[in-house]
Amino acid sequence: MEVSVLVWRRSYVEYLVAVFVGLGLSQLATLITTVYLHRVLSHRSIRLHPALTMAMRFGTWMLTSISPREWVAVHRKHHNFSDVEGDPHSPHIEGYWQIMIGNVYYYRREAMVDDTLQKYASDLPFDRLDKALLRRGTLGFSLTGVALVVLFGVFGPGWGIGPGLVALTTLAVVYLLLNAAINGAGHTFGYKSFENDATNLKLLALVTFGEGLHNNHHARPASAKLAAFKDEFDPAWPVIRLLEKLHLAEVLTKVDEGWDDHRRRIPRTTVSPMGNKTVQD
Length: 281
Fold this sequence. Notes:
The chain is mainly α. About 60% of the residues lie in helices and about 5% in strands. The chain contains 12 helices and 5 strands. The protein has a 3-stranded antiparallel beta sheet. It has a two-stranded antiparallel sheet with strand order 1-3. A hairpin with a 5-residue loop joins strand 4 and strand 5. Helix 8 (about 135-155) packs across helix 9 (about 160-185).
């Protein structure tokens, strides 16, 4: 009896650790997405050291299975047709819950359109490494799963298959949900400081390394910093500043100037899920 209880406790702890490992990896994947895919590649607001660029490429491949060229193309088209016909993943066009639940479907649907890649990511052609390896996103994500199983097998009490798969599933589910929340909730409710259809959600920003400050981003897409005012926090910004000090990154655009006198600046406005707006003092 005591032995079975002890085994159960060890198993419980192992699976709990697996969940936390998956959560940590999902945050790393989100950080790579906002810094590399979003600010470096899509909007060219940051330049990275070649060594860090390579690390980001492999991180994207192993943690997200995303093709950078496809992600950039879909994102740039989203800016071009934000919340109007042609937007690849607008909750105003497709429906709020459709995006919250099926965001990955709408992303893949647009990424499969050759014209989208040619028009919006012609500056990011596939190189030899992409063609040989990195375009095979499923392979990269599968290798992450194998690595997790091996690690839990080596350091855990069992074979590691169950905890490894739990960690991998947690990574996938949380990463997809956070991305869906940016595209769904980040265009539906929150507050605005600028006249566009995106919104700011401070709590979402904390768990997406600033991406939840979506209204700010749509106002100034080329800004490497997504926080516009003193009461806002972009968690990726201290990371970027650290990379600058280590000479691993260079910010190419202005980040603090131009917010207060922005041509689309409006009084801070709260947007409810029902579409009602209340102007705040």
